[in-house]
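Issue 218. Parser rejects a valid record. Input:
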Amino acid sequence: MSLVKGPHTAIFSHMTIVDNFKGLSNGLARSRGPAEYGGRWHMQLNKNFIVGEAPELLDQPTDGSWNLKHQDKCGIYSMSVIHGAKPIHPTMASPKPYDKYKSYAAWGGKATLQGNTFKNFIGTTAAGKRMRILCINKHASDFIPEHELNQSHLVNVDEGALAYLMDPPSGWANVKDCGNFPCSTPKNYLASWTETSYDIQNTSNFNYGSTF
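Output the parser choked on:
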């Protein structure tokens, strides 16, 4: 969703997402307003149904041409506002993946997740890979706004499956950006949970903290 001269607000709602590889995300490009602020840009994920892993991989081609069995899986991929992006009508194909930022992140911005249901996040996939509700965009070296999760409903979710907060990759250490040490955004990411409900059937009874 990061488009030059795009909207100030982008809302994704009422979707069913199953067996995600990178996860559902949302992003905006700061196309108007002061360059140093992104406070007017709002990313929302509302009333979606997100399943960590189905009993069977129903969304996999039967010929095995695209198999996510041996991949880590995420429900939500962290969101950000950036200073620039592709135009609304691109003139050429991008050699970079869609989740790779095309510019520096803008300060501010807001990410809210309202009334979403997360089901079957049990920490590891059937193949033994990592499975989490929240994951950090592996290209987000500059800044990630706080993610506010309100009235989430968790069904069969293990405590260890709430989030994966990765360490900054060593490749982020370069003179142009952060000097001789990696940019520390993954160490500064905050997600707040309020009014969270959960179904503890088939899971251990534990207390979900309000912030991690």
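Fixed in the parser; the record now loads. Residues 202-212 have pLDDT under 50 and may be disordered.
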